[in-house]
Structure formats: C-alpha cells, structure tokens
Amino acid sequence: MILVTGSSGQIGTELVPYLAEKYGKKNVIASDIVQRDTGGIKFITLDVSNRDEIDRAVEKYSIDAIFHLAGILSAKGEKDPALAYKVNMNGTYNILEAAKQHRVEKVVIPSTIGVFGPETPKNKVPSITITRPRTMYGVTKIAAELLGQYYYEKFGLDVRSLRYPGIISYKAEPTAGTTDYAVEIFYYAVKREKYKCYLAPNRALPMMYMPDALKALVDLYEADRDKLVLRNGYNVTAYTFTPSELYSKIKERIPEFEIEYKEDFRDKIAATWPESLDSSEASNEWGFSIEYDLDRTIDDMIDHISEKLGIEGKHAL
Ligand SMILES: NC(=O)c1ccc[n+]([C@@H]2O[C@H](COP(=O)([O-])OP(=O)(O)OC[C@H]3O[C@@H](n4cnc5c(N)ncnc54)[C@H](O)[C@@H]3O)[C@@H](O)[C@H]2O)c1
Fold first, then answer.
1. Quick check: CB of 176 below 6 Å from ligand 1?
2. What are phi and psi of 200, to 5 degrees?
C-alpha cells in the first residue's frame, strides 16, 4: 500500500491519481492536513509533524511505500521559518523513523533546486556540488536528502530523492513557492489581464512540466535498487527561461497579453538559485528523460487553462 503525504498540494493533487492509475485505486492512500477531492481514492488526515499519527497510519494500512510530499515551500517558509522547520525537518524525520520502525520498503522524497545557494555554480549545475542554501526551505530540504542517504546507509531503509526545478501545471495552483509565477502568468494571459510579475525580467530558472515531473518521480521509485549510485539528490530538469522569455512566447499566442515587473522578496530567493541544471546522473542511472519542451508546455497550459476557465482556447483566438 502506497501512502502519499501532502497529497492536497500542487504535486500531490496530480500524483495521487497518477499512482492510482498505475497501481490501482485500492493501493493508494492520500493524506494531508487539508482535504481535497481525491476522486474516490482513500484520504486520511495526517499531520507529518505528529509522529503518533504517522505510526498509526503506517501500521493500520500496512504501508510499504511512502511518497513524502508534505512540506512548506520556499516563499511561505521565509514568511514562517518556524513552521517550515517543524513541517519539513521534524516531518521528514518522523516519516523516516516511522518507515524504519515499520519496515516500509521505500520512501521517495521530492527535493528542490532550493537546496542550492549563491556559492553554487549558476549553469549546468551537477547533482553533487556546493549546497549552501539561504532559505529555511533549502536548509530543511538538503537535510532531508542527507537524512535519506543516512537512513539508507545506516539502517538499510530504501530512501530516494530527486530535485525538482519549478513545476508548471494547471490542476492545482501553487501558492507557496518562488517559481509560482510560471503558472500564475498563464491564468492572467488566458483572461487577457495584465500580469504583475514578482521576479525580475531576466531571472532565469530551471523548470519542468507536471507530466514529466510525475513520470520522473515514479521512474525513480521503480528504479532497480542496485542500479542507483547517487540515490539521493538527483537533479532533474526540462528547460530554463526568464520571465521575459516566457512572456514573449505566450504573447506570440495571445498578442494582447501585457506584463509589468515589480520584484518582491521572492526575486531575492530566486537570485540564489542556479539558472540551469545537469541531470545526467538521473538519465544515466534510471533513464530520466522529458517529453515536454517549452513550446509544447505552453500550448498545453493555454489549452487546459482556457478550458478550465471556460474561455476559448488559442485556436479560437
Ligand atoms: N511545486 C514545485 O515547484 C516544487 C519544486 C521542487 C520541489 N517540490 C517539492 O514537492 C513537494 C510537494 O510540493 P507542492 O508543490 O505540492 O507543495 P504545496 O505547497 O502545493 O503542497 C504541500 C502540501 O503539504 C501540506 N502540508 C503542510 N503542512 C503539513 C503537515 N504538517 N502535515 C501534512 N501535510 C502538510 C499542505 O496542506 C499542502 O497540501 C514538497 O516537498 C516540495 O518541496 C515542489
């Protein structure tokens, strides 16, 4: 039985049905502190900062794999570092301890480019590099990767983690991260409203589309244990763009779309992150690859958000 923590968030909302489709609805349990419609898949309320609750759930449902998504992301974490510490640090420790105690077979954790910092090289950053993050989010996520590796080497618990760049998607809107603009911008474009971007126009960041992000996480989960060398902290990425490059590409499709720039604290966070990643360890060890380039992502986002908002899609423009 697979348990997903933080299942009501941007990624969990899509990962849960993806896992259910692949492994059967009856074999997946969604959990979070807030409930969202899971389309008939079992949901339980589970606070990862509460060790007893985790123990009870893991035992009761005979959990043998955990996708540990619960967390407080970069922007929200800078507003409330104590909460980020409690959920990300204590929550991950609790999950790993419970997994060890109840002999869970695998724990998969999505990490982030937030583990990097200003001393990290800016371009084609390899998975093993300088990781001196300057956000509480980054501090807790690099700790989660290191704890994962520690639990593997010390206790034989099969923990695997990859580092997502910003994730672009249309189902659940992100609200807590630094890369959220790359989703928000599409809603404004489709509604033909002017978008106020909180990142500088030339702030390049690595990104990836949700279908590729889901496939990557599940491919890592399924990868042959003996083939994994790095095991924790695989960089994965699809492309890099700046807000102004993304804007130009959307404007090619929606000519009346306008943007203005007003940087806030999130631009300072983004300035400490790399512009592009090298994901060769993920490709070499477990076959990571992407299907969506930036143009395909943009077309798909505009189509789906137009449909979601009941506005005619790009072909009708
Ligand atoms: N979305 C991205 O761009 C991105 C990029 C890199 C890594 N990640 C990682 O992916 C994971 C999921 O991210 P997301 O984008 O879905 O985030 P999100 O903020 O959309 O969702 C996080 C979820 O965690 C839940 N949560 C918060 N506190 C909790 C607690 N105490 N117990 C249980 N659940 C709790 C929230 O209710 C929320 O539903 C995180 O670990 C994040 O670090 C996300």
1. yes
2. -65, 150
